[in-house]
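This entry is retained here.
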Amino acid sequence: MLAVSAHALGFLLGLMPGLILWYVYHDRGSSWLSRHGLAAARFQGAMLFIYIGLVSLYDKCRITNKEIILLGNGSLAPLLQRPEAISIAILCVLTFVAAWFTNLALSVRSAVAAARSQGPAYPTRFMDACL
């Protein structure tokens, strides 16, 4: 249940549940719990860097609330005035939402794998490339 909790809570609390599980069990001879905690922490850490990068890129576009309201109402005036900034901001928002859903799906997948006494179900090549 501890490994399941680390994966499931990792979606909500970031890398802290995985780090705590790894820290508590890395010396106690429970390599299974330690491995799950480390995998959860590594994945949530990678997702944190993705979120920070997307938010900082979105912030550099300097989109005003007025432009967001106009776009939400269907007006194309903001797109005609600053098309590159608005396009980058829209792309950042869509990528952020996709990353959020990916984080949710992979966290649930790994929690289910831990409940079945299997290894972490995060993409291994992705994790090796991130760290």
Helices lie at 2-13, 16-25, 31-61, 65-72, 77-81, 83-115, 124-130.
